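User: Zinc-dependent metalloprotease. Structure?
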Amino acid sequence: MTENPSHGDQPWEEMLRSMLGDGADEVLAEMRARGFDPSTMSGAQDPMMMQFALSQVQRMLAEPGTGPVNSDVAHDVARQVAVAEGDPSLTGGQAKAATDALSVAELWLDAVTDLPPSVGTARAWSRSEWVEATLPAWNKLAAPVAASVADALATVLADQLPDGVDDGVAMPGMPAGALAGLGMDPAQMMRRLGSAVFGMQVGQAAGTLSREVFGATDIGLPLLDDAHTVLLPTNVDGFAQGLDAPQEEVRLFLALREAAHTRLFTHVTWLRGHLLGIVEQYARGITIDLDVLESQVRDIDMSDPDALRGALSGGVFGLQNTEEQKAVLLRLETTLALVEGWVDEVTAAAALPHLPHSVALREMIRRRRAAGGPAEHTFATLVGLELRPRRSRDAARLFQILMNDGGQAARDSVWDHPDLLPVTGDLDDPAGYPARRASTAEEHADVDAALREIFGDEADAAGEDGRSGEADGSDGADKS
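Assistant: Predicted structure:
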């Protein structure tokens, strides 16, 4: 490739030249003609981050892709972010205090709900351990929208690369023509780039969350395949600092919420699939306005990690919510509110006899969830939707009404079947839900009775035919 010293001090241009070889000048000229000048990208760039990005691009192009989200990149970034503010190993005392709190929480919950304890064990995790355990779930949740974005990127950007771009392409530490050896065309290269960038986004999200969450259930979705209860002592202790409540009370209250969530996800066997299915239905229905993407992408500084994260948000990529999408979002918001409302009520009932500051702690967590904490904002960036249970207070009131009218059994029976879940209208009028549910149950009973009558008659007739055949020594078939 011809030397061009005028660009030697621009890391982003160096990366393009190493990727595009002899075709780089043509691509750079075309980018400038479109108002997308790489020379403006690198002035304030962190050299370490740039080197990291370059190494990730090299690795991503040198190895087969791992799907819409490059899980290897996500893992590396998440681990780096998790320890960026320190991730000290837990002391024996911290671990014991956390697991003891979770054990006490189970005993207190036994007195206020008929749902039994989860079958897992109590765990105390560092931030890095939380990343390792939950990252597969984050990758899965982000994959559908990542696939849509990757396809859109390939469609919009592939035509900006010259024909034959595979020939002579070199990455740092890679021989020229490496892309040709991998059998990649420009569209495939862009998909791999998108996969790596989304991996960086997922990793950044998971790593950031690891510094904020208290357990494995803060976001309201089940992130673990098993039924362990978890606390992160470093984060719990940091949250408790500056509060009027003693640290032990804060730990126990958060342990109650974690244990209540885990009971619900463990013993309401359909709930996990129901929630994740709604999220997947939403993500797979995402459409991307290619005109919006094409007009925006040339203004994105892809060498800036903050710009990359912003680029993957719904606003820049023009994610479109159809009427069907809006209905799915409403279902998700209502279900999340019901989960949060039940946990809120059960936790409050379990904590009140034991924790003097339980009322204040309950209100603090309520406001944190309703306002949208780091988990909600992070997920909104990843998937284009927010997980704020805005109506959790209405849901909690509904569960309180059921408890007052029929006790624990009536309150917990809401989770007997997904068809019996309260809907948005029930949150508008929680007091009227018991009567509406009773009416629905009567209708279902009438339908069941009719089905039994129909199929019962057919079964009786079949039985009579069978007995008749046995009596005359035949097998009941027409042998004429």
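The mean pLDDT is 75. The CA atoms of residues 282 and 329 lie 7 Å apart.
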